[in-house]
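Reminder: ligand-aware prediction takes two inputs, not one.
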Amino acid sequence: MIGGLLVVGGIATAAKFGEKPDNPQLPGVPWVVHDGTRPQPKKVETQGVVSVLPPADAKVLFDGTNLDAWTSPDWEVRDGIMIAANKNLQTKDTFRDFQMHIEWRIPADREVDGQKGGNSGIFLMDLYEVQILACYENKSYPDGQAGGMYGQYPPLVNASRPKGEWNSYDLVFKAPRYEGEKMVEPAKLTLFHNGVLLHNAKEYQGPTQHKKLASYPATHPERGPIRLQWHRDPVEYRNVWIREVGDYDEE
Ligand code: MG
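Here is what comes back for the chain with magnesium ion:
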């Protein structure tokens, strides 16, 4: 996902705050994909990171010491933090329906402009991006802001903290359900950012796309890894864990 680059009439232009790019119309709303004229989410000042420690049945993905839970661990671990570098980071394990906690920070010295400078993201099942972006002062198209369901829905509000401060996401994801090659229940996301609700069981329109409408493919994996995005910015992470969500009355 190369953030912000659009090719219109052969000329590469950036999708910017305040501008309507030449992208497909989103269903049910008057805006196009990555529409810079879509209303900016209302800003909500928060008290900052909500640091929930992993419960006993969680799978710890990063506790500050090592990258053992991840494949191709190119990222740097320093002072209890893991720092994005070189390429995407992907879990060894796969997941279907889950609760996840993750804390992230844009380094204070990053120069940011739109989708550049402070961009990462969490790909649920390797397919559905929850955006991470410096958004306290920086403006970008709303469906690409921090907590956005990238290219589909902006966050309900902007709960970002400034660069140099930690943020938390607590999310609940339910994978889509299929009967044969028919999608019968879309993927759903509930997300809290620093304790503030950004999505309430919101349905993904399909796996994340860039500059295109999302839709559900005929075949879809039952489970998938978590992928953290390398977008050429050294975004920092700590305290990452996940718990699979089962059904009632399971023993
Ligand atoms: Mg991203």
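The chain has a mean pLDDT of 94. The radius of gyration is 17 Å. We will return to this case in the review session.
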